[in-house]
Write the structure tokens for this entry.
Amino acid sequence: MTFPKTQKEFEMFFSNEEKCFSYIFDIKYPNGFTCTNCHSPNYLLIKNRTVRCKNCRKDTSLTAGTIFQNSKLTLMDLFRASWWMVVQKNGVSAKGLGRILGLDYKTAWVWLHKFRRVMVITERNKLQGNVEIDEMLMGGKKKGKRGRGAEGKTLVVIAVEVYDKGTGRTRLSVITDGSRISLNSFIKQNVERNSTITTDAWNGYVDITKMKYQHNVINLTKALDDDNLLPNVHRIASLVKRWLLGTHQSYVNNEHLQYYLDEYVFRYNRRKSSSRGRLFYSLIYQAIRNEPMLNKELLKNNI
């Protein structure tokens, strides 16, 4: 599949609605269109994002069943929104996107969240090899209890592949607590069996060996500098917090925190991509594969 590599190419690729329409068509029907009614491969692209079978005249909405379904925005605006979301190294805030595209804050916010919610590929491969795992607290400085049970904060577990030089992919997930049940579930969902997992000595990790992983335990209580003993997850934690502060001024509703984390993972795991356009294609592809989302459900109690 082709995709634009620069801003100039993007404007040429998607200079009108028909070109956006054709791009979605090619992604949705990679092996060619077949009418669901009469199985004819012959079709016409007509207005209102519709494909018409030449044989039986059945109309099929091209955006039905995608996150673009029933959108009042043009496809050009939706493509521009997704482009600006991924082409910027640190992403874009709803306020920033609104300024760029001339959208009101609510519309920009909704579409950024729709794109965030499709960034996780369901069948993605699990982390493997040497993997560091630890948790971090999100929510800023607050008085009271510190550590994994701190009140008013959100606990996030981090896993990252560790190579001889550098790191590979990462995973980030909001968890209800630091118990073995919560941590076991995260590990099973995100790390391949027989991988070597390095953690601190927290008792929430006691089942790792039982779950068919190799377990390397670092005792942080004997360390003078914790960050040097689990440096890779601590680096990810620092980068995530810096990103949220820089791009979103840390104004992130806890109910939606997981989706911001998904965006960060999407970016981090594709940081070595040869082209930002490839990220754009990945996002549009996911947008077409995923089900529609109701605006009112996204907005409820959040703006």
About this structure: The first strand starts at residue 43 and ends at 46. The mean pLDDT is 90. The CA atoms of residues 123 and 189 lie 11 Å apart. Strands lie at 43-46, 50-53, 59-61, 130-138, 154-162, 167-175, 196-200, 214-218.
